[in-house]
TrEMBL record:
GO terms for cellular component: plasma membrane. Residues 4-253 form the ABC transporter domain. This is Nickel import ATP-binding protein NikE. The keyword Transport applies. It comes from Bacillus safensis.
Protein backbone atom coordinates (compact mmCIF):
# COMPACT_ATOMS: atom_id res chain seq x y z
CA UNK A 1 0.00 0.00 0.00
CA UNK A 2 1.25 3.46 -0.93
CA UNK A 3 1.72 6.04 1.83
CA UNK A 4 -0.05 8.63 -0.33
CA UNK A 5 -1.96 8.13 -3.55
CA UNK A 6 -3.49 10.83 -5.74
CA UNK A 7 -6.02 9.29 -8.11
CA UNK A 8 -7.42 11.16 -11.13
CA UNK A 9 -7.55 14.48 -9.29
CA UNK A 10 -9.06 17.34 -11.28
CA UNK A 11 -9.80 20.85 -10.08
CA UNK A 12 -11.04 24.15 -11.43
CA UNK A 13 -11.74 27.65 -10.19
CA UNK A 14 -14.81 29.64 -11.11
CA UNK A 15 -14.03 32.78 -13.08
CA UNK A 16 -15.94 35.95 -12.34
CA UNK A 17 -16.62 38.64 -14.91
CA UNK A 18 -17.98 42.20 -14.66
CA UNK A 19 -20.52 42.62 -11.82
CA UNK A 20 -19.21 39.33 -10.28
CA UNK A 21 -21.21 37.10 -12.59
CA UNK A 22 -19.91 33.53 -12.78
CA UNK A 23 -18.30 32.79 -16.13
CA UNK A 24 -17.46 29.12 -15.86
CA UNK A 25 -14.71 26.99 -14.41
CA UNK A 26 -11.07 27.42 -15.41
CA UNK A 27 -9.32 24.02 -15.20
CA UNK A 28 -6.26 23.98 -12.97
CA UNK A 29 -5.63 20.23 -12.59
CA UNK A 30 -6.62 17.55 -15.10
CA UNK A 31 -6.83 13.94 -13.90
CA UNK A 32 -3.51 13.88 -12.01
CA UNK A 33 -2.18 10.57 -10.62
CA UNK A 34 0.74 10.45 -8.15
CA UNK A 35 2.08 8.08 -5.50
CA UNK A 36 4.52 8.58 -2.64
CA UNK A 37 6.09 5.72 -0.71
CA UNK A 38 7.21 5.73 2.92
CA UNK A 39 10.58 7.37 3.51
CA UNK A 40 10.95 8.69 -0.05
CA UNK A 41 10.97 12.17 -1.55
CA UNK A 42 8.93 12.96 -4.65
CA UNK A 43 9.81 16.21 -6.38
CA UNK A 44 6.87 17.94 -8.05
CA UNK A 45 8.34 20.23 -10.70
CA UNK A 46 6.63 22.74 -12.95
CA UNK A 47 6.71 26.31 -14.06
CA UNK A 48 4.64 29.06 -12.45
CA UNK A 49 0.93 28.44 -12.99
CA UNK A 50 1.32 24.71 -13.59
CA UNK A 51 -0.96 23.86 -10.64
CA UNK A 52 1.71 22.65 -8.20
CA UNK A 53 0.57 24.61 -5.13
CA UNK A 54 -3.09 23.83 -5.83
CA UNK A 55 -2.25 20.12 -5.85
CA UNK A 56 -0.29 20.63 -2.62
CA UNK A 57 -3.30 22.21 -0.90
CA UNK A 58 -5.54 19.37 -2.10
CA UNK A 59 -3.08 16.77 -0.76
CA UNK A 60 -2.99 18.60 2.59
CA UNK A 61 -6.77 18.43 2.85
CA UNK A 62 -7.13 22.21 2.58
CA UNK A 63 -9.02 22.35 -0.71
CA UNK A 64 -11.42 19.68 -1.94
CA UNK A 65 -10.89 18.69 -5.58
CA UNK A 66 -13.70 18.79 -8.14
CA UNK A 67 -13.01 15.14 -8.97
CA UNK A 68 -10.71 12.30 -7.92
CA UNK A 69 -9.36 11.00 -4.62
CA UNK A 70 -6.50 11.60 -2.21
CA UNK A 71 -5.71 8.44 -0.25
CA UNK A 72 -3.45 8.46 2.81
CA UNK A 73 -2.58 4.95 4.01
CA UNK A 74 -5.49 3.72 1.89
CA UNK A 75 -8.08 6.08 3.41
CA UNK A 76 -9.85 8.76 1.35
CA UNK A 77 -8.90 12.07 2.97
CA UNK A 78 -12.13 13.80 1.94
CA UNK A 79 -14.49 10.98 2.93
CA UNK A 80 -12.82 9.95 6.17
CA UNK A 81 -14.47 9.96 9.58
CA UNK A 82 -13.33 12.38 12.30
CA UNK A 83 -10.83 9.98 13.88
CA UNK A 84 -9.19 9.20 10.53
CA UNK A 85 -9.04 12.90 9.68
CA UNK A 86 -7.30 13.62 13.00
CA UNK A 87 -4.77 10.88 12.27
CA UNK A 88 -4.20 12.40 8.82
CA UNK A 89 -3.71 15.93 10.18
CA UNK A 90 -1.14 14.65 12.67
CA UNK A 91 0.87 12.63 10.18
CA UNK A 92 0.82 15.02 7.19
CA UNK A 93 2.52 18.33 7.93
CA UNK A 94 3.62 21.26 5.75
CA UNK A 95 6.39 23.82 5.37
CA UNK A 96 5.51 26.74 3.10
CA UNK A 97 7.54 29.28 1.13
CA UNK A 98 7.01 32.36 3.30
CA UNK A 99 8.51 31.49 6.67
CA UNK A 100 7.25 34.73 8.28
CA UNK A 101 3.58 34.47 7.29
CA UNK A 102 3.54 30.85 8.52
CA UNK A 103 3.92 31.93 12.17
CA UNK A 104 2.13 34.28 14.54
CA UNK A 105 4.43 37.35 14.84
CA UNK A 106 3.14 38.05 18.37
CA UNK A 107 4.08 34.63 19.70
CA UNK A 108 7.43 33.47 21.02
CA UNK A 109 9.07 30.42 19.49
CA UNK A 110 7.98 28.43 22.53
CA UNK A 111 4.34 29.35 21.89
CA UNK A 112 4.64 28.64 18.16
CA UNK A 113 6.11 25.20 18.72
CA UNK A 114 3.89 24.32 21.67
CA UNK A 115 0.63 24.65 19.73
CA UNK A 116 0.74 21.28 17.86
CA UNK A 117 1.83 19.44 21.00
CA UNK A 118 -1.04 20.96 22.99
CA UNK A 119 -3.48 19.81 20.29
CA UNK A 120 -2.26 16.22 20.08
CA UNK A 121 -0.26 15.33 23.19
CA UNK A 122 -0.89 15.33 26.93
CA UNK A 123 2.32 16.24 28.77
CA UNK A 124 3.59 18.49 31.50
CA UNK A 125 5.10 21.88 30.71
CA UNK A 126 8.56 20.56 31.57
CA UNK A 127 8.13 17.54 29.28
CA UNK A 128 6.87 19.78 26.49
CA UNK A 129 9.80 22.16 26.88
CA UNK A 130 12.27 19.26 26.68
CA UNK A 131 10.65 18.13 23.42
CA UNK A 132 10.86 21.65 21.99
CA UNK A 133 14.54 21.96 22.91
CA UNK A 134 15.27 18.58 21.30
CA UNK A 135 13.77 19.58 17.95
CA UNK A 136 15.25 23.07 17.99
CA UNK A 137 18.70 21.57 18.53
CA UNK A 138 18.02 19.05 15.78
CA UNK A 139 17.52 21.88 13.28
CA UNK A 140 20.55 23.85 14.47
CA UNK A 141 19.00 26.21 17.04
CA UNK A 142 18.73 25.93 20.82
CA UNK A 143 17.00 26.57 24.13
CA UNK A 144 17.96 30.26 24.12
CA UNK A 145 15.74 30.75 21.04
CA UNK A 146 12.53 29.71 22.81
CA UNK A 147 11.90 33.17 24.24
CA UNK A 148 12.55 35.04 20.98
CA UNK A 149 9.99 36.39 18.49
CA UNK A 150 9.90 35.76 14.70
CA UNK A 151 11.29 39.19 13.80
CA UNK A 152 14.49 38.35 15.70
CA UNK A 153 15.41 35.61 13.20
CA UNK A 154 16.66 35.56 9.63
CA UNK A 155 14.51 33.90 6.98
CA UNK A 156 16.67 30.78 7.07
CA UNK A 157 16.52 30.51 10.87
CA UNK A 158 12.76 30.96 10.86
CA UNK A 159 12.40 28.27 8.22
CA UNK A 160 14.34 25.95 10.53
CA UNK A 161 11.74 26.72 13.20
CA UNK A 162 8.96 25.86 10.75
CA UNK A 163 10.70 22.58 9.95
CA UNK A 164 11.01 21.83 13.68
CA UNK A 165 7.29 22.51 14.12
CA UNK A 166 6.47 20.16 11.24
CA UNK A 167 8.57 17.41 12.85
CA UNK A 168 7.24 17.75 16.42
CA UNK A 169 4.44 15.22 15.94
CA UNK A 170 6.76 12.82 14.07
CA UNK A 171 4.72 12.84 10.86
CA UNK A 172 4.97 10.32 8.04
CA UNK A 173 4.80 12.91 5.26
CA UNK A 174 5.82 16.58 4.98
CA UNK A 175 4.67 18.73 2.06
CA UNK A 176 7.41 21.26 1.28
CA UNK A 177 5.84 23.94 -0.94
CA UNK A 178 8.63 26.10 -2.41
CA UNK A 179 10.12 25.96 1.08
CA UNK A 180 13.63 27.09 0.08
CA UNK A 181 12.88 29.29 -2.92
CA UNK A 182 12.82 32.57 -0.96
CA UNK A 183 16.22 31.92 0.65
CA UNK A 184 19.65 32.90 -0.65
CA UNK A 185 21.74 30.21 -2.36
CA UNK A 186 23.98 29.47 0.64
CA UNK A 187 21.02 29.16 3.04
CA UNK A 188 19.15 27.02 0.50
CA UNK A 189 22.03 24.54 0.40
CA UNK A 190 22.20 24.36 4.21
CA UNK A 191 18.43 23.77 4.55
CA UNK A 192 18.44 21.14 1.78
CA UNK A 193 21.29 19.29 3.50
CA UNK A 194 19.31 19.42 6.76
CA UNK A 195 16.23 17.98 5.03
CA UNK A 196 18.31 15.16 3.54
CA UNK A 197 19.71 14.32 6.99
CA UNK A 198 16.28 14.35 8.63
CA UNK A 199 14.83 12.12 5.93
CA UNK A 200 17.57 9.54 6.43
CA UNK A 201 17.40 9.71 10.22
CA UNK A 202 13.63 9.77 10.72
CA UNK A 203 12.34 7.92 7.67
CA UNK A 204 9.90 10.72 6.91
CA UNK A 205 8.59 11.12 3.34
CA UNK A 206 8.53 14.44 1.48
CA UNK A 207 6.54 15.97 -1.32
CA UNK A 208 8.93 18.68 -2.53
CA UNK A 209 7.05 21.23 -4.65
CA UNK A 210 9.43 23.45 -6.59
CA UNK A 211 10.41 25.03 -9.90
CA UNK A 212 14.10 24.63 -9.04
CA UNK A 213 15.57 21.58 -10.78
CA UNK A 214 18.90 21.77 -8.94
CA UNK A 215 17.20 21.78 -5.53
CA UNK A 216 14.94 18.90 -6.55
CA UNK A 217 17.88 16.86 -7.81
CA UNK A 218 19.69 17.38 -4.50
CA UNK A 219 16.80 16.25 -2.29
CA UNK A 220 14.47 14.00 -4.27
CA UNK A 221 14.44 10.29 -5.09
CA UNK A 222 11.83 10.61 -7.84
CA UNK A 223 10.52 13.45 -9.99
CA UNK A 224 7.11 14.32 -11.45
CA UNK A 225 6.53 17.10 -13.97
CA UNK A 226 3.30 19.09 -13.92
CA UNK A 227 2.55 21.12 -17.05
CA UNK A 228 -0.60 23.24 -17.43
CA UNK A 229 -2.42 21.13 -14.85
CA UNK A 230 -1.49 17.77 -16.35
CA UNK A 231 1.09 15.22 -15.28
CA UNK A 232 3.52 15.40 -18.19
CA UNK A 233 5.97 12.79 -16.85
CA UNK A 234 6.96 10.89 -13.72
CA UNK A 235 10.42 9.37 -13.22
CA UNK A 236 11.20 6.59 -10.76
CA UNK A 237 14.84 7.70 -10.93
CA UNK A 238 15.70 11.39 -10.92
CA UNK A 239 18.52 10.70 -13.41
CA UNK A 240 15.93 9.69 -16.03
CA UNK A 241 14.78 13.32 -16.11
CA UNK A 242 17.88 14.25 -18.12
CA UNK A 243 17.30 11.70 -20.86
CA UNK A 244 13.56 12.26 -21.31
CA UNK A 245 12.30 13.61 -24.64
CA UNK A 246 8.95 14.82 -23.24
CA UNK A 247 8.35 18.37 -24.48
CA UNK A 248 7.56 19.78 -21.01
CA UNK A 249 10.72 18.18 -19.62
CA UNK A 250 12.88 19.55 -22.44
CA UNK A 251 11.49 23.04 -21.82
CA UNK A 252 12.46 22.81 -18.15
CA UNK A 253 15.95 21.57 -19.01
CA UNK A 254 16.39 24.36 -21.57
CA UNK A 255 15.48 26.95 -18.93
CA UNK A 256 17.92 25.56 -16.37
CA UNK A 257 21.20 27.33 -15.57
CA UNK A 258 24.07 25.57 -13.87
CA UNK A 259 25.54 27.04 -10.70
CA UNK A 260 28.65 28.40 -12.40
CA UNK A 261 28.55 30.49 -15.62
CA UNK A 262 31.30 28.34 -17.22
CA UNK A 263 29.16 25.23 -16.70
CA UNK A 264 25.91 26.52 -18.20
CA UNK A 265 25.16 23.62 -20.50
CA UNK A 266 22.08 21.49 -20.52
CA UNK A 267 22.40 18.44 -18.33
CA UNK A 268 22.68 17.28 -14.79
CA UNK A 269 23.03 20.07 -12.18
CA UNK A 270 26.58 20.82 -11.08
CA UNK A 271 27.23 19.34 -7.63
Amino acid sequence: MHLLEVKAVSHAYTNRSFLMRKKGAAPVLKSVDLTIEEGTCLGLLGQSGAGKSTLGRIILGLEKPRAGQVLFEGQDVYRADQQTRKHFRRHVQAVFQDSYSAVNPRWTVEQILSEPLENYESMSRKERKNVLIHWLERVGLGEKDLCKYPHQFSGGQLQRINIARALLLQPKLIVLDESVSSLDMVTQAVILDLLVELKKELGVAYLFITHDITAAYHLCDQLAILDQGELAAQFQSKDDFFSSEEEAVRKMRDAMLADHPLSRTIGRPVR
